Amino acid sequence: MDHRSLYRTYRPQGFDEVVGQRHITQTLARAVAEGRVAHAYLFTGPRGTGKTSTARILAKAINCAEGPTATPCEVCQSCRDITAGSHVDVIEIDAASHGGVDDVRDLRDRIAFAPAVARAKVYIVDECHMLSKEGWNAFLKTVEEPPGHVQFVFATTEPHKVLDTIHSRTQRMDFRRVAAGDLDAHVQDLAEREGIDLEPTARELIVRAGDGSVRDTLSVLDQVRAFTGDTVTADAAAEVLGAVDADTLAEAVRALAAGDAGAVCTLVGRLADEGVDLRQFAKDAIEHLRRLLLLQAAPEAGLVEATPEQLAELQAQAQRLGRAQLLRTLELLSEAQPRMRRGSTRLPLELALLKAALPETDGDASALASRVERLEQGLAAGPPSAPAPTPQPEPKPEPEPAPEPTPEPEPAPEPKPEPEPEPAPEPAPEPEPAPEPEPEPAPEPEPEPMLAPAAEPEPAPAGGHLDLARAQAQWPAVLETIKRRRKPRVHAFVCEGAPAALEGQVLTVQFPTEKSFHAEQLKDEGVQQVAAAAVEEVLGQRLRLHPQVSDAAAPRPAAGGSGSAAAPAAPAAPPATGSPQGSARSDVAREDVPPPASVTDHDSQTTPEAVPADAPASAPAPASTPPPASAPAPAQADPEQAAAEREAAEAEGEEPSAITHDEAVATVQRELGASVVDVDASRGDG
Kindly report the CA angle at 26 between 23 and 32, in degrees rounded to 5? Predict the structure, then answer.
């Protein structure tokens, strides 16, 4: 006896038997019942979704002896002939083999003849997209205005290849892929009719292999049944179809979530050794990950069709993978599929899975998003792991029995009286002097506050807002940082100014009018970079320093730039210079301007007497000369030696003395290699 395939045996014979296309069958049934059947229809959709079967049912509904009717009787001669495919007035044409212009012309000539036995002639043109452009043009007028006894049904899987002029002359009906639930119920019904014992998991594999096509699904069922007989198990179905079972897909998800490259490579190697089609594995993995993505994006929408147990397992897997990693894995596997068809199947799959498991190996934006997402998940998982060590301290109470051995040492006091005569207890006070060095650290904290201004800025970036008040308060620390970096030239320029305004990333540094030279030097790019780097180290933010010359009062640090607030103490140093001009000036009235002095080029040999030689003209107070008579020696001390003594004092933790005007001038001369002339002295300002 000849065997007939299941999809031929169970081809639908009525509108109600078509699976998953209710939006079309109901429309056609009502059109037939109400006499509103169009002269031409265009059926489009994937293969195996019922296009040709529906066209035959429409032909039976029109030509049934009981009709036209939406429910053909299936017993009249017309219905039986159409079912058998032998009706003389229902003509099926394969456009793939009869799509030329001559075939269309012959068809057009025969259309004019009336039907032989039926109520109407029905032309079913299958794969109509294969018709040539000339053929369509020859058919155009006939399709637009056919005779009243003719009905056209065009069927195609590629509607975009059909001319727009044909689209406009037909009613288009789009067939959809059949839902998995409808296919599952249909397969179960046919299995019961055929006496097939079908496991639920095996049925799921068969439906998934059908991919929304009823014909493909029944063909797969036929294939599996031929291998296993009337009892179909999940393992047998997977073996026949080359499909990957759910456990293997779950293993792949765990390896990707853990970033375990070794597990990924081992899995691919095992599948290859077992003879599994890696292209099928990639396809199944994509479908599995798509279901996880749907569960992540819309868990309550019911987009994933599965049993409650399967849904619970899928949701658990969806929680292991982050959204970014899931999307990236889907993209990588989708891009690998074409390469797997063109050449090696294993290498593209391994590369895609390794990139998905190790996002740090890739530099694109999606890989960066996966890495950030993984770090966030790790931080989120951190707190739960923290309680783990907390139970560990619980064993600590166990040492409480330690008091029990305490009675054992009780006999120990007995030997204690024996060493009493020994002078051993006397050395005990000797360690007491050890605490005496403790006062030594006491002075150590004193220098620490001096360094504190430089260290305090470090937490500032994490702290928060940077404003002018904070910049002014930390300005001494900025000067100290420049000095610590051994940039005396930059320090000499910047120390004469102070922050006056902060707007965005620009810090305005105000200089007195007489320090316009220092302000101009701050515009130099080298000076600007050193000063900006010091500001960033202290304040935690990169700022551009904008010099401004103004007589307006502005908060200023100490002249030495050491961060000390004791600026008024600096004027105490001028009397030691021995300069009448320096003693005659009021340092209290202008504490921001150092005492004037006449300074010549550093290469000239100017004696100490040369400085006071000009003094009588502007210093009419010779009475003050007797006291300085004994002071000239320290006043004319080498400024470099004074600077060295100041550094030594700082190293020992002592409060350094304020820098004198002569020391500052000598430092500038040494660094710049040029003479410095006191502006006030040159004007005769005493």
Answer: 140
CB 325 within 8 A of CB 355: no
Q: Yes or no: say if 607 and 651 are a contact pair by the CB < 8 Å rule.
A: no
**Residue in the structure block whose two tokens are 């058998």:** 84
State if pTM tops 0.70: no
pLDDT tens-digit map of 393-433: 444 444 444 444 444 444 444 444 444 444 444 444 444 44
The residue assigned the tokens 């550093």 is: 602
Read off the pLDDT of each residue in 76-101 and give the average, rounded to a whole number: 89
Angle between helices 214-228 and 200-210 (to 10 degrees): 130
C-alpha span between 523 and 548 (Å, rounded): 10
Comparing 86-95, 275-284, 656-665, the range with the smallest average pLDDT is: 656-665
**Predicted local confidence at residue 482, as pLDDT:** 85
Beta-bridge mates of residue 511: 549
Query: What gap in Å lies between CA 527 and CA 334, rounded to an integer?
Result: 56
Residue 119: DSSP 8-state: S
600-609, long-range: CB < 8 A, 24+ apart: 600/675, 601/674, 601/675, 602/666, 602/669, 602/670, 602/673, 602/674, 602/675, 608/578, 608/632, 608/636
CA distances from 490 to 218, 292, 672 (A): 87, 62, 11
Cα 507 from Cα 542, distance rounded (Å) = 10
- Residue pointed to by tokens 């199947």: 345
Q: What element of type H or E holds 197? A: strand 197-198
